[in-house]
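Project standup — Tuesday

K.O.: blocked on the structure for the chain from last sprint. Re-posting the sequence here as requested.
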Amino acid sequence: MGASTGGYDIFLALWRGFRLSMQTAGALTLVSFVPGLLLHYLWPRWERRIVLLLNGVLLSVLSILFVASFPFYRQFHANFNQMLFTGANDDIYALFITMVQQYYLPVRLAGALLLAYVLWRGLRALLRCRWLEDCMDGVRLPAPMRWLGRLAFLYLTYIVVLLGIFGGSLGWQTAVNWENAGVTKDEFLNEAILDNVQAIYRAYNLNERMLACNGLDFTTEDIRNLAARLSGKPTDTDDLDVYLTKEAQGPQVEKPKQVIVILSESFANWPLLDKYEEIPISHGMRSLIAEDDTDYCPTFLPNGASTVSAVTGVVTDFADANLYLTTMPESFAAPYPTASAPQMEKLGYTTNFWYAGPSTWERIGAFTQAQGFDHFYSRGDFGDVPGSVWGCEDEVLYEKVLDGLDPDTPSFNVLLNASNHSPYDLDLEGKGFDKEAVRAALPEDHQQDEELLKELGHYWYADRELAKFVKAVKEKCPESLIIIVGDHADYLRAHRPEGVLVHGGRLEPDPDEPPGRQLRLLHHAPCHRQGGHGAARARGCRRR
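H.V.: unblocked you, prediction finished:
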């Protein structure tokens, strides 16, 4: 563990892991419970034997995985991951000899089987225990009490089933899964939160995502000719860097001290259209757009259909091509030539990535640092802060970022917030949201849609906190360039205002299109507006 890791982090990891393992325990219980239940009615004499046999197999597998996880972690500094599937395609004989010679496979296997046997004997003794029956022997409860007892047992079973399905929670809104489990600031503890079954499930999921990526069947000559045609350069090299290298257009201007790119969760552009001006949820962005030092482009599209596509677009500068970069080993070997952090570092900036959620989501912590970011900060670094299962509240994230900005130290910062995301569980009333004013501004047939009002309230909160943050940055670091972009629009089509399309140079409602237009707001301080520099800077930043 890291030197700064304390008792609270350890407790948080144990509690989070305990909740997550309820899901594992629930799934494993079904392996013996379902056959045992059937045998109880079909073949009672074999019920106990089969249950013990199945649990013996399960305990053996779990014990072997447990013992194997130690050398695996020493080798890869992670719980079970995609290397399991990489190893399956490797030289099996060579791997076996390595495990025997280097990792003492026979000794470890014997220890695992001994552990499984001890646990199995304990289970067998537990199943033989009849103290409850002995205590209740001869006791005759009244019929109402017996029915109440049965109802209480059924309700308790229902609660246990929910805890198993949702990972220690009673609903999906607060469920713990392998993607949001890593909430501590310690990388080792984040890996330890996953039990071995969950770690293998994670490896399987990530491997499936990688296999689902669409490859492109190009020859070297095809790529060379295409790159030359798109770049206008001669086909005299196979070095893609030569074709990809471009220079910014317009006059060279003084560099801002701070460059901040904000990827705002589900921050669709439709609330900023004139048609929806009367819905009071976008005053913050509208006030920024109205300022002289802001450039606003309402017709950009998202880089992809999900948040991870937006992240990979900003981090690597790759257009989305259904390549799950956060699962590909190449992404962790070295930064891509087009990666943003190394380029900004060459310009003299310290590079930081700030995320409201856990570092384990989409392997975002490891991915961003592998792609050249000097520092990565996530919810685990912020301590016990309010938020949802997806991350801390926006105001907390912005406060941490603001504390980390040094006006005298040039820095490049990418921020990914999370408040404007389901399960939409912010205390909007406590935040000051005027729900009735928004209700009154909606069409009559939507005014009683409480779910819609809740979602609009979260947009209002994201808008307000974003505007407050921009103003705070301008006060603390006036020589700043702030770029605000929505990662994508909201996913749900029901009850959403229609999308927009560009026609004849103006925006018109298009009922056949979802609200996919994303906010692209370039906000920079007045000191960069002299001599038209702001407009030139905006053109340079908009090239993606």
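K.O.: great, moving the ticket to review. The chain is about 50% helix and 10% strand. The CA atoms of residues 130 and 136 lie 10 Å apart.
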